[in-house]
Amino acid sequence: MLTIRQAAETDCPLIRRMAEEVFPATYRGILTPAQLNYMMEWMYSEASLREQFRAGHAWFIASSDGEPCGYLSVERQGEALFHLQKIYVLPRFQGIGAGAFLFRHAVEYIRSVHPAPCLMELNVNRRNPALRFYERMGMRRLREGDFPIGDGYYMNDYIMGLEIR
């Protein structure tokens, strides 16, 4: 059975452990090892995670039969704009519906804090096979860009969007 709970700043070590498993598995064939390491520290260091909590990112941890299986974070970026910053399912839990479960929860969360129509955006690497998942969930490609993230690295992404009503 899948369950979800809102994470607290004290969950940073758990989020980091899950990211250490899922992030390389997701991007191994897309990014160089050096960029993978850089991005892990940039997004998932203890300091970075704590800063994300303090900046108001809402984090959630999904579990399957009591075992943590994935996570997501949502950031409000404007009056009617939210960004799905992260949504990942550990490899051994992929295929059980956890990704759709997390995605639906992100939408429900946004509706709970903003009942008026709004837009949820997501950056996804242009070579990431998860593009098809996001399209199945109703997202559409809005634009693309190459975004510098430091150390000479770029995120080569589509920005996808979902109108939430």
UniProtKB/TrEMBL annotation:
It holds the Pfam family Acetyltransf_10. InterPro entries: Acyl_CoA_acyltransferase, GNAT_dom. GO terms for cellular component: ribosome. Transmembrane segments: none annotated. Residues 2-165 form the N-acetyltransferase domain. Keywords: Acyltransferase, Ribonucleoprotein, Ribosomal protein, Transferase. SUPFAM superfamilies: Acyl-CoA N-acyltransferases (Nat) (SSF55729). The keyword Iron does not apply. GO terms for molecular function: acyltransferase activity, transferring groups other than amino-acyl groups. It comes from the Bacteria. This is Ribosomal protein S18 acetylase RimI.
